[in-house]
Every structure is written in C-alpha cells, then in structure tokens.
C-alpha cells in the first residue's frame, strides 16, 4: 500500500477518499499535498507509479492493463469500504478512467465523481491520435516538448534528475499508447457526474465527448494558465474547493 499510495494526511474518519493520478512523468509531491487542504470529510491518496520516488529502482510499467491491475489490486479493499472519487491530470486522466472502468466492469464499483484535467475524452478522435504519435528517444527533444507545456512546471538543475524525469515521462506516454477504449462496443460505462478542467492557454481538448460516457451530469471549467495551470496557488484553491463541494453534494 505505501509503495503505490502517498497519503500525507491520514483521515480514517473521512466519509470519502479522493484518489489522485498525476501527469506523465509525475510523482506524488504536488497532488499528495492536497491532503492538507481538504476538510476532514475527504482523505487524499496519490498514486505513485514504478520508476520514480521510492519506486525508482523498479522497472517502468509496460502497458495500461498491468498498471490498472496493480492499482486495482492494491486499492480494492479501501475502495470497497467507503465512497471514493478520482482526479487525474493529463496521463493521469486516462489512467484514472481506465481504473474506474475496470472497477465498474469487474467489481461493480463506481466513483461518486470523476474529475478529469488536461486531457481528451478517451472516446474522442483526438485521444486516438495520441496512440500514433511517435515518442522521441532523445532527451533534448522530450525536454523541449515538456517546456512547451507551461511555465509552472519546474525543471531540476541536476542533470541526472532531469534525465530521470524525462525518462519517466517517455515511459508513461508509451503506457498511454497501449490504452484501448472503443465506446461503440459497450454501454454507457458510468452513472456518476464528470467534471473536466483545462488551462486557458493549454491546447484545446476534446472534452465534450465525456458526455457520452456517463448518464450523470458533465461540467467543464477553464482556469487561467497553461497545461500545468493546477500548480498555480489560485487555481489549486479553486480546484480543491470545487472538488470538496462536489464530493459533499454527492449521495454518500
């Protein structure tokens, strides 16, 4: 549990857990800190994938299926014992969706709310195009691409750490490219509400297609900033307060 999940503020009496899934190449240092911000009604877990932080010596995940299976098997007991919601940014939005779909199909478990940030709906044409995008093996090319995503992402000065961050990003994108979802082959997968967020200076995401994936309500919010808009304190404040309201208004 401690290997996969970072929980900096344990709240055993919380009525709901928020499971956070970081962006490609990301660790738990930012989103895990949300545990200090939320009220006592919400306990925050942040997912830590292999190849980073305390799992630095582990080999990177090779595909979405094995990643989903690890997250599900480790968290299943906790997800069965009380309501939960998912928040995912970028790559994390796809992983959280894949985990949620697996939980619904295999165990009949569903989040009370899905919060998706900085990503296309998985049933959109734009999402499918990601699978065919070539991933460079050159660190400089990947680093240049990362820098285009927004000024709020901090790059370490240490070259070894920077190389490891680029490697983790590349490997996460390769996992994303193994993700397969075809809406036409299944019924509407969810009944929970879905909220989508994006930065105003980020690229346009096909978020409307999320409406096809739930019988619940869908809503969309644009906040100032680039791809990593959520790291700006004012935006983080909006996100945590809005997520809290949504969770507390859900039928728990």
TrEMBL record:
Transmembrane segments: none annotated. SUPFAM superfamilies: alpha/beta-Hydrolases. Keywords: Fatty acid biosynthesis, Fatty acid metabolism, Hydrolase, Lipid biosynthesis, Lipid metabolism. It catalyses: (9Z)-octadecenoyl-[ACP] + H2O = (9Z)-octadecenoate + holo-[ACP] + H(+). Residues 17-243 form the Thioesterase domain. PANTHER family: S-ACYL FATTY ACID SYNTHASE THIOESTERASE, MEDIUM CHAIN (PTHR11487:SF0), THIOESTERASE (PTHR11487). Belongs to the thioesterase family. This is S-acyl fatty acid synthase thioesterase, medium chain.
């Amino acid at each position: 549990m401690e290997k996969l999940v970072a929980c900096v503020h344990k709240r055993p009496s919380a009525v709901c857990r928020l499971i956070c899934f970081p962006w490609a190449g990301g660790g738990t240092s930012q989103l895990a800190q949300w545990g200090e911000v939320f009220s006592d009604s919400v306990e925050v877990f942040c997912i830590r994938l292999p190849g980073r932080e305390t799992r630095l010596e582990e080999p990177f995940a090779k595909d979405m299926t094995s990643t989903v299976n690890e997250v599900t098997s480790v968290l299943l007991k906790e997800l069965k014992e009380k309501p939960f919601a998912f928040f995912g940014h970028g790559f994390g939005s796809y992983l959280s969706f894949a985990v949620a779909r697996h939980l619904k199909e295999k165990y009949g478990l569903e989040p009370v709310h899905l919060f998706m940030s900085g990503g296309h709906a998985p049933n959109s044409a734009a999402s499918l195009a990601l699978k065919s995008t070539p991933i460079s093996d050159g660190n400089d090319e990947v680093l240049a691409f990362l820098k285009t995503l927004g000024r709020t992402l901090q790059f370490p000065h240490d070259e070894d750490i920077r190389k490891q961050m680029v490697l983790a990003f590349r490997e996460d994108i390769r996992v994303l490219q193994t993700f397969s979802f075809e809406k036409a082959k299944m019924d509407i997968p969810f009944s929970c509400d879905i909220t989508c967020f994006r930065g105003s200076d980020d690229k346009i995401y096909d978020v409307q297609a999320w409406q096809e994936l739930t019988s619940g309500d869908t809503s969309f919010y644009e906040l100032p900033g680039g791809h990593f808009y959520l790291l700006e304190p004012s935006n983080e404040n909006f996100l945590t307060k809005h997520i809290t309201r949504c969770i507390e208004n859900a039928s728990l």
